[in-house]
Specification:
Elements: H1 3-11, H2 16-19, H3 22-35, E1 65-68, E2 85-88, H4 90-96, H5 105-108
Antiparallel strand pairs: 1-2
């Protein structure tokens, strides 16, 4: 796959097709994970996002996802560069991407007890 194809996929709104290609699945992703020893670089305080700084203590966590430092949408020319990839655990990847999936307070709310319930 040529570099220009990544740009074409992004412009067509089909960037996820890039992540299902053999070049990503067999070459780039495993190379980044091996380079980082399958350790989350953010939990280990080796890499940090300027927008979402890591405030937790240093821990050793297994990394299963690979994150583009410069996003594929804005910089498709860097999508296949190994220096643009960092290994992260699932939680750190969601935090860096700005996803609020870890709001546990909503799940811990106790049900309201009222007269109708009894």
């Amino acid at each position: 796959m040529k570099r220009s194809n990544v740009r074409e996929l992004v412009e067509a709104g089909e960037k996820n097709k890039f992540y299902w290609r053999a070049e990503w699945m067999v070459e780039l992703r495993p190379s980044a994970l091996e380079r980082d020893h399958y350790e989350c670089q953010r939990c280990n305080h080796n890499w940090d996002s300027e927008q979402y700084p890591n405030k937790r203590k240093k821990t050793l966590t297994i990394a299963k996802t690979v994150h583009h430092i410069y996003s594929v949408e804005k910089y498709p020319e860097y999508a296949k560069e190994l220096w643009n990839l960092v290994s992260l655990c699932y939680r750190c990847h969601n935090e860096v991407e700005g996803r609020a999936w870890f709001k546990f307070k909503e799940y811990k709310k106790k049900p309201q007890i009222n007269d109708e319930r009894w």
